[in-house]
Amino acid sequence: GIQVEQSPPDLILQEGANSTLRCNFSDSVNNLQWFHQNPWGQLINLFYIPSGTKQNGRLSATTVATERYSLLYISSSQTTDSGVYFCAARYGNKLVFGAGTILRVKS
Amino acid sequence: AAGVIQSPRHLIKEKRETATLKCYPIPRHDTVYWYQQGPGQDPQFLISFYEKMQSDKGSIPDRFSAQQFSDYHSELNMSSLELGDSALYFCASSAARDSTTYEQYFGPGTRLTVT
Fold first, then answer.
1. Cβ of A31 and B48 within 8 Å?
2. What is the tens place of the pLDDT at every residue in B35-80?
3. SS3 labels along A63-95
């Protein structure tokens, strides 16, 4: 089956810093989603981005489907950005998740 | 906007007991998915339903069964619970009829603890 790899596995930022999270996938996918899992366990949809670039406030994402990767940019990070960021690629009917990036933003 | 509803939010069971988790999809969504997330792990796909028919199956134990009802809500039934079944169980929904996107929206999850 498809493999989804995320990097880095852990990231510690000072409040106000910028960061880039990467997601590589091993095969062609129908779509790609980014999620933020908050400390309470909720999975929050960030982006549905099968290709191209999207922006939502301080967050933006780019997927280059032909090269099988996606990037999530976080600018001017805030402590509330802390949590786990997952990318997930749709394969058939299901989402296959990467292992996640644990982000800690310090004030 | 309405979101996916899951109940109960927390559940504590003993080994060998049974549990039933419920999921109510976003209105007008006709596809439901179940995922299991163990401690420190990423969510793993269990099973999905489209228009009350099973559409895909993942690593779901034989002790588990699920179905989707005529009002599109879904239930995950878990029997002979084991300690390893302790996890966060997510339900997600999507609008399959909308051919422009299959974006999945996740509910808040049911945290199952087996003692």
1. no
2. 999 999 999 999 999 989 999 999 899 999 999 999 999 999 999 9
3. EEHHHCEEEEEECCCCHHHCEEEEEEEEECCEE
